[in-house]
Amino acid sequence: MREVTKKAKGTDKASNVLAFPLSKTSGEVLICKATARKEAKDFGMTPDTFIAYLFIHGVLHLKGFDHSATMEHEERRVMRRFDLRRNE
């Protein structure tokens, strides 16, 4: 993932998630499980829940969302829809 991040973003580190549109109706979401597992606790989630969140985050980027309060609202809505919760 580090090499992919370097090519895509010019950053020499592994991103937790990257989303690449392939066409108007399709794309791919890459998730670095090792990075996600390390970061999950910082986001108050189990590793599996955080990986699911990253997938949602990537798909929203493919749908045209940029980082914003609107995107965060949509992430929360989808997380609730699939009963994914932060650690309590």
Tertiary shape: globular
Identify low-pLDDT runs.
none
Strand order of the largest sheet: 1-2
- Let me know the CATH homologous superfamily: Metalloproteases ("zincins"), catalytic domain
Domains (count) = 1
Query: What fraction of residues sit in β-strands?
Result: 5-15%
**What is the chain-wise order of helices and strands?**
HEEHHH
The CATH architecture assignment turns out to be 3-Layer(aba) Sandwich
Please tell me about this protein's structure.
The relative contact order is 0.14. With 88 residues, the protein is mostly helical. The protein has four helices and two strands, in the order H-E-E-H-H-H. The chain has one domain: Collagenase (Catalytic Domain). Helices cover 50% and strands 11% of the residues.
Task: Output the keywords.
single chain, 88 residues, Collagenase (Catalytic Domain), two-stranded antiparallel sheet, 50% helix
Please give the structural blueprint.
Blueprint lengths: L1 H8 L7 E5 L5 E5 L1 H7 L7 H16 L6 H13 L7
Antiparallel strand pairs: 1-2
Short characterization:
This protein has 88 residues and is mainly alpha-helical. The chain is 50% helix and 11% strand.
